[in-house]
Amino acid sequence: MVQSISAARVATLVGDFDRSPAYVGLSEALTELVGDGRIGLDVRLPSERDLTAALSVSRTTVTRAYALLRDGGYAEARQGAGTFTRVPGGRSRAHDRALLPGPDDGDAIDLNCAAASAPPGIAAAYADAAVELPAYLGGHGYFPAGLPRLQAAIAATYDARGLPTAPEQVMVTPGALTAAAIVAQAFTGPRDRVLVESPVYPNAVGAIRHSGARVTGLPVDPDGWDLDAVGASLRQVRPTLAYLIPDFQNPTGHLMTESQRRTYAGHLRAAGTVGVVDEAHQALALDGQEMPRPFAAFDDRTITLGSASKSYWGGMRLGWIRAPHGAMERLTRARLGLDLGAPVMEQLVLARLLTHPHDVVQRHRDRLREQRDALLAALGRDLPTWRVRRPSGGLAAWCELPAARATAVAVRAERHGLIVAPGPAFAAEGGLDRFLRVPWTRPAAELEDAVRRLAAAWGEVSGDAAPAPRSSARVMVA
After folding, report:
1. Where are the beta strands (DSSP E) in 161-240?
2. What is the full DSSP assignment across 388-411?
3. Closest CA to 57 of 120, 10, 123, 3
4. Per-range mean pLDDT, top range of 10-24, 30-44, 223-237, 258-272
5. Predicted TM-score (pTM) of this structure
6. 307 with 315: CB under 8 angstroms?
């Protein structure tokens, strides 16, 4: 079946594109739409006549825009059929063989990785940053703490959120995962204990364990944090660090209130434990709610990890550490044993995104909200026996199954062309096979298809008394 997109829909998606000249602006807008998946692959574009009328431009503008699109490899003309979207390198260009190790994975719907495509505006930020890059080429290019202008821009975001921060308290890293590894390297050793939430982002646990520290899990209930249990565990274990995700916790989606942050911070101080707070999802409030102040506003010993990957794009590979005064020297010594700094180009991009008026994050949130609502509606319709809470932000739904068969469901789902992560992947110390994480990071139609495949897998597993065969281990990115 040939997929097509109407001229009216294209007009809505391209919006107020740059018209200086119009054909270039239209081509660039269409390129970005195809590249980030808002217009799918092998989709027939509107005829030149229809799009001309929908956009109120000349026929020449559309003709030349389509020609540029074809020259760039983002469309192809098929004789007698029209103009169809494509991407240079084909569908496989978006996949990494380490992430999709199976021979047939290339055509699967990948919901193992909870990371979205780049929102509108990222390509333009890269183009603008490229103009600035030559000014930095005369130097060595190493900035272990980060470009000063980016440090200042990140510090300003904390100021705006009610946490006064000096630029010298910020260290820019190649992603939040590297930030976690630097903190663990700087503050823990083989005899130290680190308390981590469970379920939890598994790669962060791996980074902490790499320092030699011993990890102890602290359960996060399906309905939130049990702060009495937090206090009891901290008193008993007396860990050096406690890794927590108070902002749309990965994978449960929970959001910690200010009152809960104040209580949690009190427990940490009483135990002499330093909180390491992962704020990777903090900017992804999808219901327009006012976000609580940063956790560090309640405990000035807190080390905060930030990331551009979820609020902007994973391919940017930038994160940061916001450290208390006096901690940066220790972090710098640890950091130099791992790497010498983040790429200058990407730092220029992020500095521009943070300091220039833009609506990139808001447009990203709007898209994620639409996808979240589509996913939750499909789960409610096709899997009514599953318990699915509605997160007010973040990137994924944490689904509770009627029986502990999540691993079996994930294995069966692969046979239906769907890759999804079962609960045990997020368990710090085992268990959680009643849960499955389903991200809403793909287009709505693809998510609805994914849920149909998931329902088929559940139907097979729930009626099968025998355990499903084990699948090959998969690498999880986010």
Report:
1. 170-173, 193-198, 214-219
2. E---SBSSEEEEEPSSS-HHHHHH
3. 10
4. 258-272
5. 0.82
6. no
Tell me the per-residue pLDDT of 75-101, one tens digit each, with 9 for 90 and over.
899 988 899 988 776 654 444 444 554
**CA–CA separation, 275 and 176 (whole Å):** 15
* Tens digit of each residue's pLDDT (9 = 90 or more) over 405-432: 899 999 999 999 999 999 988 887 778 8
Calculate Rg over the CA atoms of the chain.
Answer: 24
Strands of the 396-400 sheet, one edge to the other? 109-111, 418-422, 435-439, 396-400, 387-388
Please give the Cα distance from 59 to 284 (Å, whole number).
Answer: 40
Q: Strands, E, within 167-315: which ranges? A: 170-173, 193-198, 214-219, 241-244, 274-278, 303-307
Residue type, 414: E
Helix axes 59-71 and 48-55, enclosed angle (nearest 10): 120
Cβ-in-10-Å burial (0-12, 13-18, 19+) of 98 comes to exposed
Buried/exposed code over 425-440 (b: 16+ C-beta within 10 A; e: otherwise): bbbbeebbbbbbbbbb
State pLDDT tens for residues 329-387.
Answer: 999 999 888 888 899 999 999 999 998 766 899 989 999 999 999 999 999 999 999 99
Q: Please list, in sequence order, all residues whose beta carbon lies within 8 angstroms of the beta carbon of residue 329, skipping any fewer than 6 positions away.
A: none
Q: How far from chain centre, in Å, is Cα 284?
A: 9
Two tokens, residue 130: 């490229």
pLDDT interval class at 399 (50, 70, 90): very high
Q: Which of 169, 167, 127 is nearest to 352 (CA)?
A: 127
Q: What is the mean pLDDT of the segment spanning 395-414? A: 93
Q: DSSP string covering 449-466, please? A: HHHHHHHHHHHHHHT--S
User: Measuring CA to CA, which residue among 180, 235, 169, 174 is closest to residue 205?
Assistant: 180
Q: Quickly count: other Cβ atoms within 10 Å of residue 412's Cβ.
A: 23
In whole angstroms, give the CA distance from residue 141 to residue 397: 41
Q: What would the mean pLDDT of 59-68 be, rounded to a whole number?
A: 92
- Could you tell me which residues come within 8 angstroms of residue 347 by beta carbon, excluding any fewer than 6 positions away? 143, 146, 147, 150, 172, 318
Percent of the chain at pLDDT exceeding 70: 92
Of 295, 183, 320, the residue nearest 245 (C-alpha): 295
Instruction: Centre a 10 Å sphere on the Cβ of residue 324 and count the other Cβ atoms it contains.
Output: 15
pLDDT at position 138 over 60 = yes
Give yes or no for residue 27 having a pLDDT over 60. Answer: yes
